[in-house]
Design the sequence.
C-alpha cells in the first residue's frame, strides 16, 4: 500500500475546521491569522491586567497597589496576604504544575521545540488565575512570563482550530508570545524580538513578518485600554564624557555576575524545596509567609517592583537601600518561584538590574566624579545588562530598555553592556534563566536544532565500507598501480589482523610518484602513511565528528571498532554526514507535522485523502514483544505503520522511529502511527 502524503501548507492554504471550504494564498493566510492572534493576545493581556487589579482590590483595598497602599495596612495584614495568596495557588500548582507553576516561558519553549506548538485552553485559564493570585497578593514575580504563556496558548489554540500543522503552528505560537510581550510592555518592537530570539530561536523572515503584525495589533489593543505611555518614566540621560563608556562596559561585566548569581540562586531554591519532605502544596503558603515577612520591612519586593525601578532610574535611592533591595529581591523571587508560586522573572530581572546598576553608579560617581553622570543612568544600563545576561537575549534586552523608557540617549552604552553581559554569562556557565530549567530536565534546545540533530545520529548511521584498503607491506609500484585504477582520495592501511595502521592521501601519493622510478622497489606503504590521523568509532555522535572535520582539513575519516584494538570498520565522509543531517531534518519535519495534526485532532485521526486516514494508537497487548515483520500488519490488517513513538526512562524524552523496518520490536507503552482505510484502522484498534 502506498501511503499518501498529508496535506501540508504550501503556496496556497486550505483552512481546516469550520472554515474548511475556504482557500487563500499562504502569505494572506498568515497575515490574517496574525491579525486575529494579535487581537486575542491584546485582549488577553488587558484582561489579565484587569484580573490582577480586581484581586488587588480584594487584597489591599485599592485597584492599583503601590508602596503607600501596602504601608497603610498593619504588619499582620502584610504578613498574611502573601500567605493567603500562596494557599490559593497551592492546589493549582499541585494538580496542574506545568500550566500553573513557575514562570511559564520555559514551558512555551519546550512546547515549540518538542510538541510542534500544541497548547490547550486549560493553560490560559490556570496560568491566568494562578499568576494573578501570586502577583496581586504580593508574590515577588512579574506579569510578563504569564502573559507570554497566555498569548502563546491563544496562538496555538487558534492554529489548532484552523488545523494548521508543524512550523506554521509554531509561528502562530510565536505570534501570540510576541503579542503578549508587546501588549504588556507597550513595546511593539521588542515583542517580536523576544519571540524569535527566545521562544523560537529562529530569525527567518517568512515567520518574522506575521509575528510583527501580531505584535503591532496587540499593542494597538492594549493602548486603547491602558494608554500610550512608557512602562517607566525616567529622566533623559546622556554620557557625561566619552571615557564614561569604560565604566558602562565594566558595568556589563558586573551585571553578568549578578545575573549569574540570580539564576543559580533561583534554581537552587527550587532544588531545596524539592528536597523538603512532605506534601508540596504546604510550601506555597509558607513561601508566601516568608515573602510577607520581608514585605513588613521592605514592601518594595512585592510584585514586579515597577515603582521602585522608577525610583532607581531617577537616582532617588541611596546605596545602602540599593544593596539591600538587590539581595532581598533575589531571595524573595527565588522563594516565590521555588515554593510553587506563579509569575514571571522578567520584571524581577529588571528590578535586580536597576538595583545593581544604581549601586555601581553610586560607587563610580564617587571615584570619578568628573567624567561620570548620575547613578540613575547606570541603573538604566544595568537593567538591560542583567536581562541580557539572565536571558542570553541581548538584542531583546537592548530594544526593550529603549521601548520601556523611550530614552535613546544611552543606546551605545546599553548595547555595549548588554553584549558584554551576554558573552560573560555564557562563558560562566551553560543555560539562561529560561533554558536552564529545560536543561535540568534533560532537554537541550539552547544549542540549536542543528546540534541536537547531529547528536541524535551516530557514526554507525552514516559510515561506509566502500574504501580502498592496502597492506602495510605493499611496495610503491603496486600502490601506484592501485591508485591508477581507483578514483579514491584516501588509501587506508590495514594489517593481516584487521587493524588500522595509517592512511595515504593524495599529497603523499604525489610526492612518492615524483621519485617512483628510483623508489618503486624500496618504499612500502607503511613508509608513506600518516599515522597521526584522527579516528572515530561507530558509537560516536555526529556532533563530535563534525567538530573533528572543522578542525582538520579532511573530507574523510577512518572508523575503527574501538581505540584499543583499532580494528578497521570503514570510513565516514563530510558528504555522508551532511546527507544524513538533511535526511534527519526532513524526517523530523514530517514527524512534527504528524504530531501536530494528531494532537490537534480530538479523535486522534487525520484524513489524508483518497480514502486513507492516519491514526495514533497505543500498541495492543497482542502486538507486544513482536517485530513488525512477525506481525505483518500490512497483509493481515491492510494498514502500514509509519511511525513508532517510544518513551524512555526519562519522562521528558522519547525515541521516534519514522517508517520503521520489519526488525522494529514493539513493546507495551509504545505509540504507533498507522495509515489505512477507516475500516482497516477500526479492525486494528
Sequence:
Amino acid at each position: 500500500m502506498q501511503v499518501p502524503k498529508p496535506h501540508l501548507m504550501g503556496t496556497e492554504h486550505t483552512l481546516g475546521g469550520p472554515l474548511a471550504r475556504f482557500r487563500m494564498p499562504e502569505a494572506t493566510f498568515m497575515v490574517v491569522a496574525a491579525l486575529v492572534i494579535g487581537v486575542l493576545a491584546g485582549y488577553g493581556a488587558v484582561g489579565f491586567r484587569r484580573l490582577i487589579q480586581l484581586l488587588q482590590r480584594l487584597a489591599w483595598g485599592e485597584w492599583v497597589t503601590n508602596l503607600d497602599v501596602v504601608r497603610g495596612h498593619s504588619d499582620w495584614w502584610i504578613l498574611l496576604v502573601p500567605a493567603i495568596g500562596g494557599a490559593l495557588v497551592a492546589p493549582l500548582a499541585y494538580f496542574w504544575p506545568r500550566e500553573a507553576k513557575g514562570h511559564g516561558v520555559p514551558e512555551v519553549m519546550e512546547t515549540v521545540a518538542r510538541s510542534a506548538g500544541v497548547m490547550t485552553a486549560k493553560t490560559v485559564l490556570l496560568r491566568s488565575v494562578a499568576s494573578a493570585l501570586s502577583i496581586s497578593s504580593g508574590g515577588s514575580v512579574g506579569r510578563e512570563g504569564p502573559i507570554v504563556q497566555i498569548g502563546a496558548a491563544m496562538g496555538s489554540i487558534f492554529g489548532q482550530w484552523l488545523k494548521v500543522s508543524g512550523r506554521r503552528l509554531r509561528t502562530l505560537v510565536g505570534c501570540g508570545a510576541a503579542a503578549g510581550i508587546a501588549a504588556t510592555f507597550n513595546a511593539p518592537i521588542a515583542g517580536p524580538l523576544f519571540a524569535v530570539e527566545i521562544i523560537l530561536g529562529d530569525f527567518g523572515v517568512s515567520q518574522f513578518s506575521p509575528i510583527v503584525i501580531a505584535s503591532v495589533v496587540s499593542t494597538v489593543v492594549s493602548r486603547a485600554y491602558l494608554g500610550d505611555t512608557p512602562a517607566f518614566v525616567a529622566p533623559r540621560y546622556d554620557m557625561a564624557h566619552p571615557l564614561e563608556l569604560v565604566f558602562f562596559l565594566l558595568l556589563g561585566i558586573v551585571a553578568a555576575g549578578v545575573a549569574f548569581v540570580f539564576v543559580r540562586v533561583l534554581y537552587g531554591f527550587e532544588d531545596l524545596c524539592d528536597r523538603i519532605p512532605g506534601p508540596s502544596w504546604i510550601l506555597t503558603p509558607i513561601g508566601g509567609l516568608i515573602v510577607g515577612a520581608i514585605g513588613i520591612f521592605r514592601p518594595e519586593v512585592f510584585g514586579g517592583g515597577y515603582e521602585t525601578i522608577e525610583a532607581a532610574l531617577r537616582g532617588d535611592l541611596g546605596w545602602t537601600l540599593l544593596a539591600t533591595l538587590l539581595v532581598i529581591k533575589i531571595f524573595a523571587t527565588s522563594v516565590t518561584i521555588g515554593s510553587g508560586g506563579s509569575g514571571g522573572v522578567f520584571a524581577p530581572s529588571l528590578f535586580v538590574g536597576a538595583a545593581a546598576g544604581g549601586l555601581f553608579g553610586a560607587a563610580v560617581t564617587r571615584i570619578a566624579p568628573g567624567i561620570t553622570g548620575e547613578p540613575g543612568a547606570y541603573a538604566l544600563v544595568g537593567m538591560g545588562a542583567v536581562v541580557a545576561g539572565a536571558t542570553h537575549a541581548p538584542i531583546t534586552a537592548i530594544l526593550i530598555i529603549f521601548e520601556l523608557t523611550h530614552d535613546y540617549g544611552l543606546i551605545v552604552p546599553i548595547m555595549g553592556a548588554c553584549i558584554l553581559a551576554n558573552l560573560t554569562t555564557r562563558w560562566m556557565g551553560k543555560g539562561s534563566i529560561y533554558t536552564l530549567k529545560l536543561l535540568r530536565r534533560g532537554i537541550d534546545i539552547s544549542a540549536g536544532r542543528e546540534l541536537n540533530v547531529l547528536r541524535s545520529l551516530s557514526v554507525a548511521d552514516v559510515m561506509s565500507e566502500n574504501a580502498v584498503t592496502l597492506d602495510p607491506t605493499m611496495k610503491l609500484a603496486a600502490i601506484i598501480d592501485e591508485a591508477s585504477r581507483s578514483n579514491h582520495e584516501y588509501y587506508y592501511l590495514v594489517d593481516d589482523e584487521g587493524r588500522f595502521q595509517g592512511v595515504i592521501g593524495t599529497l603523499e601519493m604525489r610526492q612518492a610518484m615524483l621519485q617512483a622510478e628510483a623508489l618503486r622497489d624500496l618504499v612500502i606503504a607503511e613508509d608513506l602513511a600518516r599515522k597521526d590521523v584522527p579516528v572515530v568509532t561507530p558509537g560516536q555522535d555526529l556532533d563530535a565528528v563534525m567538530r573533528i572535520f572543522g578542525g582538520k582539513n579532511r573530507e574523510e575519516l577512518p572508523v575503527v571498532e574501538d581505540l584499543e584494538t583499532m580494528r578497521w570498520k570503514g570510513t565516514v565522509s563530510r558528504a555522508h554526514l551532511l546527507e544524513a543531517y538533511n535526511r534527519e531534518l526532513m524526517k523530523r519535519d514530517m514527524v512534527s507535522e504528524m504530531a501536530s495534526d494528531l494532537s490537534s485532532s480530538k479523535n486522534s485521526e487525520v484524513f489524508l485523502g483518497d480514502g486513507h486516514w492516519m491514526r495514533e494508537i497505543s500498541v495492543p497487548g497482542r502486538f507486544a514483544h513482536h517485530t513488525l515483520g512477525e506481525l505483518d500488519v500490512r497483509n493481515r490488517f491492510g494498514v502500514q505503520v509509519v511511525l513508532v513513538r517510544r518513551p524512555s526512562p526519562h519522562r521528558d524524552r522519547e525515541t521516534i522511529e519514522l517508517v520503521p523496518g520489519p526488525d522494529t520490536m514493539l513493546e507495551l507503552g509504545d505509540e504507533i502511527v498507522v495509515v489505512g482505510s477507516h475500516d482497516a484502522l477500526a479492525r486494528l484498534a
The chain is about 60% helix and 10% strand. The radius of gyration is 30 Å. Residues 1-11, 649-653 have pLDDT under 50 and may be disordered. The CA atoms of residues 33 and 581 lie 32 Å apart.
